[in-house]
Amino acid sequence: MSNNLPKVAWIGLGIMGSPMSENLIKAGYSVTGYTLEQDKIDRLVAAGGTGASSIADAVRDADVVITMVPASPQVEAIAYGPDGILENAKRGALLVDMSSITPQTSVDLAKNAAEKGIRVLDAPVSGGEAGAIEAVLSIMVGGEQADFDAAKPLLEALGKTIVLCGPHGSGQTVKAANQLIVAVNIQACAEAVVFLEKSGVDLTAALDVLNGGLAGSTVLTRKKDNFLKRDFAPGFRIDLHHKDMGIVTDAARNVGAALPVGAVVAQLVASLRAQGDGGLDHSALLRSVERLSGSQV
Fold first, then answer.
1. Catalytic position from the list 111, 116, 175, 198
2. CA distances from residue 46 to 22, 59, 103, 229, 281 in whole angstroms, order as listed
3. CA-CA distances (angstroms) from residue 184 to 97, 133, 210, 221, 276?
4. What is the DSSP letter of 284?
5. Residue 164 near residue 145 (C-beta atoms within 8 A)
6. What share of the chain is helix, strand, coil (3-state, %, to 5)?
7. Long-range contact list for 210-219, CB < 8 A, 24+ apart?
8. How far apart are the C-alpha atoms of 143 and 164, rounded to whole Å?
9. CA-based nearest residue to 47, from 18, 22, 16
10. pTM surpassing 0.90?
11. Cβ count within 10 A of residue 198
């Protein structure tokens, strides 16, 4: 293992964090990981990483700290306080937060970290579980050019499209726009699926030909089998998309941008969650269209 590479601490080994951290190990990085579930730490160790007993233990010697947790409260919980990243990482370390959180949380984190001599990038991702496993994620980054340049080789082990979008928080703003487009796209696909099925058309054939034309999309390519098989095992949970629709509607209101269709889809995501489907993949928006169309779900 060539140890001129920066030493990495990875906090948060969920659906996205586990395969991403493993891709860094495959690229030759030394990765020390911490997460709440011991079996996820064991998985990292089996892949060639090192397990840590706490956040402080994980970040102490790290050159780069990468975080991948569900939402703003979790980012704040791992970053702040006596046991958090800012108190325990070394001066000059680079903190790359890959979680999807509010732009303001990222701005505040960067400001607080700067007081400790820690540099920060917000670097949320798009591409879901499959993109994480295949290392083809799209990574939208906010922060300083120099820090982006330093992080880029590492990010290239995780994704394919890696773009600095502007100052701190910009990555989160672009991610929020991403989640808006994805949710509206899934909803449109779901409506088409129910319409096609009720019309008695061969769904597999219909989705194939639609995906070859202007209606085609990465969403349809990735979610076609979910629709066809009604397989809603989560790549990306409705609960998390619900959180993201809250971020985008709130951020849009703050800047004076209207999201008329986004607001409707946000309500459909919220209603799906209220019906107990929060743990399912976001392609389960199909279930809410089926319910509205009188089908037993």
1. 175
2. 10, 20, 35, 33, 28
3. 26, 25, 17, 15, 21
4. G
5. yes
6. 55, 15, 30
7. 217/185, 217/189, 219/182, 219/185, 219/186, 219/189
8. 7
9. 22
10. yes
11. 12
Q: Tell me the β-bridge partners of 237.
A: 281
> How distant, in Å, are the alpha carbons of 131, 154, 178 from that of 247?
22, 27, 11
Residue 146: Cβ-neighbour burial (10 angstroms; 0-12, 13-18, 19+): exposed
Surface-to-core class of residue 75, CB atoms within 10 Å of its CB (0-12 exposed, 13-18 middle, 19+ buried): buried
Q: Does residue 94 contact residue 65 with C-beta atoms inside 8 Å? A: yes
What separation in angstroms does the CA of 269 have from each of 93, 100, 262? Answer: 38, 17, 10
pLDDT digits (tens, 9 = 90+) for 164-217: 999 999 999 999 999 999 999 999 999 999 999 999 999 999 999 999 999 999
164 beta partners: 141
With a CB cutoff of 8 Å and minimum separation 6, the contacts of 82 are none
> Which tens digits make up the pLDDT trace of 94-131?
999 999 999 999 999 999 999 999 999 999 999 999 99
CA distance 268 to 255: 23
Tell me the C-alpha distance between 160 and 267, whole Å.
Answer: 32
φ, ψ of residue 163 to 5 degrees: the values are -135, 130
Cα dihedral angle (48, 54, 57, 61), rounded to 10 degrees?
Answer: 70
224 catalytic? Reply is no
Show the tokens assigned to 29: 């990085």
Secondary element (H or E) of residue 175: helix 170-198
Helix (H) or strand (E) holding 9: strand 8-11
In Å, the largest CA–CA distance within the chain is 64
Angle between helices 238-255 and 170-198 (to 10 degrees): 120
